[in-house]
Design a protein that fits this description.
Shape: elongated
Order of helices and strands: HHEEEEEHHHEHEHHHHEEHHH
Radius of gyration: 29 Å
Oligomer: single chain
Structural class: alpha/beta
Strand content: 15-25%
Strand order of the largest sheet: 1-4-5-6-7
Distance between the termini: 42 Å
Helix content: 40-55%
Number of strands: 9
Amino acid sequence: MGKYDRCMKAYLQDKRRFADLFNGSCFQGRQVIRAEDLEEASGNYVVTEEKQPGKSLQKGTEIIRDVKMRYRSGMILQVLAVENQSYIDYGMPVRCMGYDAAEYSRQLKERKQERRLLARRKEEPEKELKTTIDERLSGILRSDRLHPVYTICLYSGEEPWDGPRKLSDMMEFDPEESVRSLFKDYPLTLFCINEQKGFEEFHSGLKQLFCAMNCRKDKERMAELMKNEAYAHLSKETWEAIAVMTDNAAMLQKKDKYKTENGEEEEYNMCQALEELMEDNRNEGNLEKTKTVVKNMLYRGYEIEDICAIAGCEAPFVEEVKKELFLQ
């Protein structure tokens, strides 16, 4: 997993931001999913597969979901998951379908284990007598129900997504239409950050993060964005996520310099930080230009006093440049 995917995974572990992602990307900002109805859940599955007919099942590949939570709506339990994607995966529909299938397989396995445990304890003898031969062979009851799984693929890359958006986009179909009609499709719930504008549907730090990510290669747009007051009151997690996802190492290192207190909460002022960083870059650029002028004049044998007068610098600076030339 790359640094961008690790960053988004850590950022979305927060229940409020996780709920905001689903509400903003799937429900146009309506508050359908509430953070208080979410429960953290393990995102790891161990897939078992039968190597040869008649052989027992053995441990296979471990599948790790990026972020997974259980969502309770009344008495109903559902599974919500996010797969972070920083590059275009041309097999993404198959990959996400496999993750969902692994979750359903896990649920089936749990049901069967529960039935076997109850049978050993003989806690439900009457119910056991009423089960059919098919239910006993299946290991689950006809009345058993699984928890539905909903997966978002969150694409944070810069290139336009030109990969498949549903399973059928990956298929080479038989031209006979009657055969194709048997195919069951699997559409991705794909949210591409670089295809969106404004992000008004989001109500957490995701809005500031996504807006900044869409300006990461445009310094003018980024400077304009940082005039927004919201960027003067960022959480530590949002500050760090913006710094990582926009490849701004300097911003990441200097965050404590711009920490402020707002009641009991810590806030970070990225507006001030970016303004000072841009000023430092301008000064550094001017310094390099002056150094180039001084070097050229030293090559041509100008006196130090004349260099200072023409280049607008001090004698110690000229001496330092002169030392560099000798070292070269």
